[in-house]
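Risk register update: the risk of archive-format incompatibility is retired. Evidence:
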Amino acid sequence: MWKFILKRVLLSIFILLFVTLIIYTIMRFIPTSYVDAMAREMSMKPGALSFQDLRKQLNSVYGLDDPVLIGYFKWLSHAIRGNFGDTWYYTGTVTKKFADVIWNSFFLGAVAFFFQIIIAIPLGILSARKQYSKTDYAVTVVALIGISLPTFFFATLLKLVLSVKLGWLDLYGSVGKFHNQLSTWGKFMDIISHNLMPIMTLVIVNIGSLMRYTRTNMLEVLNADYIRTARAKGLSESKVINKHAFRNTLIPIVTILGGTIPGLFSGAMITETLFKIEGIGRISYDAMVHGDIPFTMFYLSFLAMLTLLGTLIADIMYAIVDPRVRIS
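Archived output:
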């Protein structure tokens, strides 16, 4: 197993280098650039140089006049030491800005992910056990609504009902203006009041696919020969489901759960924007729109690394849930 993990880690490093090269190349050829905007703004001041001269100077300062490969290896030499430069659009270094907002997104993503698992997987199993019953149809309808419902529509509906009409929850932000002045319990309730609707939005629009996937796999397992044999031996239905069927249903689900790791850190751009939460999804989108190459490079490279890590974790979890795929 350790040899397998080591091999996968080395392969992941090679893939990561190739992916970051592609990302850097794309960044160098994006049509919008913060450098262009800065040069244009500076050229309009009295006595300033022309736009082209200023653009040339700024490109030289930021290393954008180097060939792509040379520029990439310069970026890589700094990146492996943890230096990703200063963000162009925001203030401070890239890593500081990232650290300031990442935990807001992680909190939303982790809590939503937890509720997705405890809601979607049991309901998917229940739906498969009671195939073609009213329960099955009800779960199927909920899953289809979750899959089909646009994020912006559901979020706006929640805001209209729970905040504007009923006044139960706060409309925007992660915490209130006077959060630091509240008691411990008051701070806790303030966080819930601000984050409940974003979490509800993420859960509802994401449980549908996991619910349907769990149902489909459970139906396939329940029709297997070894399940019929277990029932023929007189095992109780709960033992058949929990001990035999559920363990084998987990195997394909592990793939989905491993692939969700990047989602915990990537942020929910639409949700964060609608609820005005300073999360990494919203911040990264603004950085990309304004041509902030250093921040965008770090963000996309970080997601690529998490994707590779999620795939590796999924492979290891295969060996845990299914002895047939264990590597000696």
